[in-house]
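FORM 12-B: Structure-to-Sequence Request
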């Protein structure tokens, strides 16, 4: 099993920045890909940014150039640096891990990000 705990959400004005963290514990060696997802009220959950064990990254078009995903393997922590935030970035942000061998998905509890205009 893998446990994921997010932190770093909050209220920020448009144009501001936040840094989300996701602390991973448990059988983290089984995880191949880690992502950040978000879900706004009344909308489907969407992938924001992902990073593989090899360091490859991908981003949703809506956040390219503004968000950066990274990981600290020594601390088993995933980060999402969010700059130039917009009101439409308001959502609950979730940390997600995928274990390919066992086809298992792991989710954190989510952290609220609110961007005021």
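FORM 12-B RESPONSE
SEQUENCE OUT:
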């Amino acid at each position: 099993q893998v446990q994921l705990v997010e932190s770093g959400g909050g209220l920020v004005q448009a144009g501001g920045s936040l840094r989300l963290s996701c602390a991973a514990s448990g059988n983290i060696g089984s995880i191949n890909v880690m992502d950040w997802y978000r879900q706004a009220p009344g909308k489907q959950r969407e992938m924001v940014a992902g990073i593989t064990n090899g360091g490859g990254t991908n981003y949703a078009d809506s956040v390219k150039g503004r968000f950066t995903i990274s990981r600290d393997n020594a601390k088993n922590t995933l980060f999402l640096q969010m700059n130039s935030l917009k009101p439409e970035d308001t959502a609950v942000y979730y940390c997600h891990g995928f274990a390919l061998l066992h086809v298992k998905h792991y989710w954190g509890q989510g952290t609220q990000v609110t961007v005021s205009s």
